Amino acid sequence: MGATVEVDALTKSFGRQNIWKNVALTLPPGEISALLGPSGTGKSVFLKTVIGLIRPERGSVHVDGVDTVSCSERELQEVRKRFGVLFQDGALFGSLNLYDNIAFPLREHTRKTETEIRRIVQDKMELVGLGGEGAKVPGQISGGMRKRAGLARALVLEPEIILVDEPDSGLDPVRTSYLAQTFIDLNAELDMTILIVTHNIELARRLPDNLGMLFNRELVMFGPREVMLTSEEPVVEQFLNGRRIGPIGMSEEKDDATAAREAELIHDDNEEDVRGLVPQMRPTRGLPARSGEERRSRRVLASLHELPARVRAEILAAAPPEEAARWRAINATVAGLGGMP
After folding, report:
1. Which of 113, 160, 200, 335 could form a disulfide linkage to 340, CB 3.0–4.6 angstroms apart?
2. 229, 223 contact by CB (below 8 A)
3. What distance in Å separates the CA atoms of residue 181 and residue 159, rounded to the nearest whole number?
């Protein structure tokens, strides 16, 4: 199972510009999490801070107990081996073919023989759907294939945690869907912890187990998809609907006067409200069920009695019938004990 990442009171500024402050969240082991937010809210900076490429002013990032903020450089190098990173553009070397690009970390950081490297590289290329493409160079392939090659390279050192920066950048919706399915399948097979930074609403609604959102230099919310997708938090609701009405402006947070004026002038009666639960993506047929999904479901079940009645009703309506019946029975017991409002 993937590692646990615990972020506490994390604060980062560049000069006088505060990027975000007091960010606190826990990436549950073996689950897929996504971090949302408007452009310019420091999502990519957050990824680089988690892996120790950027040092924050305050706070901690514990990876199974080791703080990447305060640990020594030697300890940090060891912790980084537990991470794989997929950058926006794949970050491939244009002069190397795909095979050599993917083999690069193994040649740099291990003492494996070329025979061992060949086996690992071919295995990872098959895993991401690039079997037989190793002789091609990045300039000969599509953006989607470059993303897959970057993902294969992120996997060759057998990381426990994968960090993904804007996986849909430069991809059309179909290729984005294929890549999202790859993450689901990888999680089903390897049970690794995955954190994805994105502002793609469809990806955020269908892919992750947990969702968080950065806005106005703070983490607005972080929690299981069932809670986030049914949230009435104005920033979350506006972002998931892609609407103009709400706290998010073109370049920054709106003041109250601007928000009130826009609410009077903008008519969005014909815009569909997409808030609510939609089916989560499932592993490709033949693969095992995701353990991360099962763990998340149990966690939601344990806290169901703490949620508003409307949210409970939506969660139960979206659950499989047998699961919903089990949830109702357990929570009826909790209610009888005075635990449910």
Report:
1. 335
2. no
3. 19
Q: Give the residue among 174, 166, 183, 175 at the shortest CA–CA distance from 143.
A: 175
Residue type, 249: G
Q: Which of 56, 245, 80 is nearest to 162 (CA)?
A: 80
Task: Return the CATH number of the domain spanning residue range 5-229.
Answer: 3.40.50.300
37 and 201 in contact (C-beta within 8 Å)? Answer: no
Query: What is the domain partition of the chain in residue ranges?
Result: 5-229, 291-336
Structure tokens at 13: 């500024």
CA dihedral 108, 112, 118, 120 (to 10 degrees): -90
Q: Which residue has the tokens 């996504």?
A: 34
Tell me, letter by letter, the H, E, C secondary structure of 120-189.
HHHHHHHHCCCCCCCCCCHHHCCHHHHHHHHHHHHHCCCCCEEEEECCCCCCCHHHHHHHHHHHHHHHHH
pLDDT digits (tens), the chain, 341 positions? 789 999 999 999 998 899 999 999 999 999 999 999 888 889 999 999 999 999 999 999 999 889 999 999 999 999 998 999 998 766 789 899 999 999 999 999 899 999 999 999 999 999 888 998 999 999 998 888 898 899 999 999 999 999 999 988 878 888 889 889 999 999 999 999 999 999 888 899 999 999 999 998 999 999 999 998 988 888 888 888 777 777 877 555 555 555 555 555 555 545 555 557 888 999 999 999 999 999 998 888 888 878 888 888 888 887 777 777 777 776 666 555 555 44
Amino acid at site 182: T
The C-alpha torsion from 191 through 194 and 200 to 204, rounded to 10°, is 50
Whole-model pTM?
A: 0.86
The tokens of 302 are what?
């344990």
User: What would you measure as the largest C-alpha separation in the chain, in angstroms?
Assistant: 68
* Contact call for residues 61 and 67 (beta carbons, < 8 A): yes
